[in-house]
Amino acid sequence: MSSRSSLLFLLLFLSGNAMSQKVPDFYKDVQPIIHANCVPCHRAGEAAPFPLVSYEDVHKRTKFIKKVVSSRYMPPWKADQHYNEFANDRSLTESEIGTLMAWIDGGAPKGKVDLKAENAIRARVDAGTAYKRKPDLTLRMKDAFVVKGDGTERFVMFKIPFDIASEANVEAIEFTSNNKKLVHHANFAIHPVSDPAIDLHDTGTVVDLSGPDADRYYEWVKYKKDMTYYGGWIPGATVETYPIDMGWVMPKRGVILLTVHFGPSSLDAESLNGINVFFKDSPIKRKVKVISLGSGGIGEKDISPPLMIFANEVMSFRLRIANNQPDVSLLYAWPHMHQLGKEFKAYATTAAGDTIRLVHIPAWDFRWQEIYKYKKPLLLPKGAVVHIEASYDNTTANPMNPHSPPELVMSTGNMRSDQEMMTLMLMYVERDPDDDNLVFQWQ
Ligand code: HEC
Fold first, then answer.
1. N or C end of the chain: which has fewer CB within 10 A?
2. Is residue 8 pLDDT above 90, yes or no?
3. Measured from the CB, is residue 73 less than 6 Å from ligand 1?
4. May I ask which residue range the UniProt record assigns to the signal sequence (predicted)?
């Protein structure tokens, strides 16, 4: 085709397209995309700086939205989609981006109003939950913690004792906070304490791990003999739910030890955090468990070479761990590194020579972490070897480097974000032969 005829063709194509293409309807076409992929962060109380719940919220920012959506900066999604697929992939398809662009370019009209979806979101925000109903159990810190506006980051642990009428099957659980913008990430361990001789209240309720009284943490060791569950929150993470016959049992009595990593704040602000738990009557046939591999978990000492990242170097590390339990089915993978992280890959190899792809983050970004949920139970057979490969950039070329000039960085076990971690958490159940045919119904 000559350049002239191709230009003509292009013009015809464009004008034909514009004429045939109706501007999408906001409430029918645009809002469902925004609600599913943006509102988990862009609603009151969540991590993003403004809500995108109503027409007005979105209409005010169409110029920005066009920019961040077409550049794929939003929604943030860092996993390599060519490596494997996840149920909670929030990245937009080409056709979804096309719908948003066509609506914005068409003048972003309001069209016929239908407030049903946003009223439902508001009702959840008002009920203090992102889940579809009110929580059966709400546990909060006793007093709000004041995050000083001194620009320093902090790791603070909180003890939240509980003693409920009876143990209960858990359908869903979520981390809650009056202000998630202060929180970089949070982890919680649920420790059952059935021995009535152990007092749940005779110890402190807060320990600042970055402060001079960090050792008071040892007062809580008496609660830590058992752990029922370990969960967490990172920006964008919402409710954690389990398939109908899976879950775990909330013990009758015990403590939650909640670790909150507060980012640097420039103003004094109060933080009041806790968890909501949703119970179900149906029996739990398959118990959900969590395992942590690497820094702060199993195999920390086997990271090779030892996790020391020398100044001005880009370094790679690996860890291999065999699954010596029976076959398991994985529900999700949760990779974790800090600011020097560059790439993270995890897979498993079997004796038969197969490779099971777990997760690959080609361009790690500390700000956008995720709990990656599988679509179907992923078989990790007995004897399979889990491989974790991670690389770190401790040079001045890394704009996230917390040290200038670069310094030696290690995994010191205190989880400070200017030190490093190489961790993979896996949530799993024991394998059931029917798992080959099961598709998870994530919330
Ligand atoms: C995982 C949480 C998360 C999701 C999902 C998400 N955002 Fe964001 N968004 C943020 C945070 C946090 C910021 C502020 C920090 C920043 O701009 O990097 C932000 C910033 C923005 C900005 C302002 C950018 C700027 O340059 O100031 C726009 C516009 C935006 N988001 C639109 C969207 C849209 C549209 C979607 C869905 C298609 C979306 N976001 C999904 C967390 C999220």
1. N
2. no
3. no
4. 1-20
Q: Do domains 137-285 and 289-437 have the same CATH topology?
A: yes
Q: What is the pLDDT of residue 2?
A: 45
**Using a 6 Å cutoff on CB, does residue 71 contact ligand 1?**
no
- Any atom of ligand 1 within 6 Å of the Cβ of 236: yes
pLDDT in tens, 259-289: 999 988 899 999 999 999 999 999 999 999 9
- Which residue pairs, CB below 8 angstroms and at least 24 apart, start in 138-142? 138/176, 138/274, 138/275, 138/276, 138/277, 139/256, 139/274, 139/275, 139/276, 139/277, 140/176, 140/272, 140/273, 140/274, 141/205, 141/206, 141/258, 141/272, 141/273, 141/274, 142/205
In short, whether 235's Cβ falls inside 6 Å of ligand 1 is yes
Fold that domain 289-437 belongs to in CATH = Jelly Rolls (2.60.120)
Nearest CA to ligand 1 atom 23: 64
pLDDT at 21: 65
Q: What are phi and psi of 300, to 5 degrees?
A: -50, -40
Alpha carbon of 82 to ligand 1 centroid (Å): 24
DSSP string, 151-199: S--EEEEEEEEEE-SS-EEEEEEEEEES-GGGEEEEEEEEEE---TTS-
In which band, very low, low, confident or very high, does the pLDDT at 416 lie, cut at 50, 70 and 90?
A: low
| Ligand 1 contact, 377 CB (< 6 A) | no
Q: Where are the domains of the chain?
A: 3-126, 137-285, 289-437
Q: How far is the CA of 263 from the centre of ligand 1 (A)?
A: 18
pLDDT at 29: 97
Q: Are 440 and 243 in contact (CB under 8 A)?
A: yes
CATH class assigned to 137-285: mainly beta
Over range 388-416, report the average pLDDT.
Answer: 89
Nearest Cα residue to 190 out of 139, 250, 233: 250
